[in-house]
Amino acid sequence: MKKLTWLLSALALIAVVSGCSPKTELTGETNTQETNSECAQLCNQATAICPSLISLEQCQLACADWSEETKEKISQVTTCQELSAISEIIESLIPEMNDPKLNPAKNECEAACQNYVNQCLTLVPNATQTLFQEGLDSCLTECANWNDPMVKCMTQAPDCESMTNICGL
How many Å apart are CA 43 and CA 54, to the nearest integer? Predict the structure, then answer.
């Protein structure tokens, strides 16, 4: 026990002489704090730029797994479109988007496409019922080729921007 205490004291002394905190060298605690601080800053920036793309909680959970290159890209974005173009963000938010399950149930497509009409086509100035019906029909045709996560994303998207930026419409 005395040898272990002596060894720890020696390591602490070496760390102090070399300018490092013994706690940092032995536990790596500061590195975790730096990563958490960097992620907090990036996530605050990302959610301020594009709150419809990512929530603060989702961002902070995913951030630790992002590459330094991705973190650098995020620090430089200024628009929601730029942020949504970073594939690592989209993959971490909707990893199942690459799932090859096809042919969703007809009623699921109807819900997704009705949401599309409500969120996107209603933004068209002077839109008519004919446009809404044509949009719905076109969407239903396309939906037959979407995977289940895409359909769920389209069904749950809160706005047209999300359908484009997150779901990949």
Answer: 9
**57-78 pLDDT tens trace:** 878 888 888 889 989 988 898 8
With CA atoms as reference, report the closest residue to 164 among 83, 108, 86, 84. 84
Question: DSSP string spanning 100-166?
Answer: ------HHHHHHHHHHHHHHTGGGSTT--HHHHHHHHHHHHHHHTTS-HHHHHHHHH-SSHHHHHHT
- Which pTM does this prediction carry? 0.43
Rounded to whole angstroms, what are the CA distances from 128 to 110, 119, 125? 19, 15, 9
Q: What is the pLDDT of residues 81-132, one digit of tens each?
A: 777 777 777 666 554 444 444 455 668 899 999 999 988 998 888 888 899 8
* Closest CA relative to residue 55, chosen from 169, 166, 151: 166
